[in-house]
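Methods — Computational structure assignment.
A single polypeptide chain was analysed. Its primary sequence is given first, followed by the predicted tertiary structure written as structure tokens.
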Amino acid sequence: MDSEHDSYNRKDLLYQPVEDLKLNEKSSIGELMKQFENIGGFTASKVYTAYAITKKMMSGEVTKFLSFPADIISTGTRGLINQAIRNHLFDVIITTNGTLDHDIARTFSKYYCGSFDLSDRKLGRIGINRLGNVLVPDSSYGETIEGFMQPILEELYAEKHEWNGRDIIWEVGKRMKSEDSILYNAYKNKIPVFVPGMTDGSFGSQLWSMYEKHHDFKLNLLEDEHLLSDIIFEAKKTGAFMIGGGISKHHTIWWNQFREGLDFAVYVTTAQEFDGSLSGAKLEEAISWRKVREDAKFVNVYGDATLILPMIFGALLH
């Protein structure tokens, strides 16, 4: 609570007038972002702050984390994240198992545009799964992933019986052979992909199926944690661009607590903090856990990532 003796300095506050947004048919994303700096409200100014923080952490010796959940990989936003990975904007990826699923499925088959309002009972009867307003035919998902994964896992098993998650993902990515694939470009740029919930989803089911056939097939997720700890302890500074919450966000901030927190952090979310969830928790809360440093540059941006990311990443890639 503010002390009654505290006071604001007018000169410190009233230094930047609000400027009107001016666009024309030739305006670029970079120009739009520059105008957001002085727009004065509301989410637009936070989008600019997120851009400025991300740009700052791209310079200097900063180990950069990108975390995101799988749902956006079912959408065309996958292409933008793939472009960021292809351009090596980030050094480490922490995500959920569905990212592996959707990246494989969409590399070898198609998803389709749909609607939130379609009848799920009717869709289920004709072999179509709904993910928000994205339609995923049965044949584009489980069948595609199983057909691609099982021969690879047999090949890896013949080489050795125990693998960590990072290396399995790289081995799968190597065999994707598509510039459109996140996993392929992560392998190509030697960007580690960590999936702490790796036994979830279709990719995880393929690992389970392999174990059912070969009970000496082992997935060593603790070795992934060892690899991640090496990255953390060797980093001079760390920054994270976190999209959505859940396990991918938490694993990112959890490991950074062991170096007294992130130096830079951007969090894009639609979750609210009133329910006490990690997804809704603002970065301010992470300071109390020493997952974000007290003096860190950070911002919470509320909005749909499929809208916000093209503005921020588009300006960075401009």
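Note: The chain has a mean pLDDT of 95.
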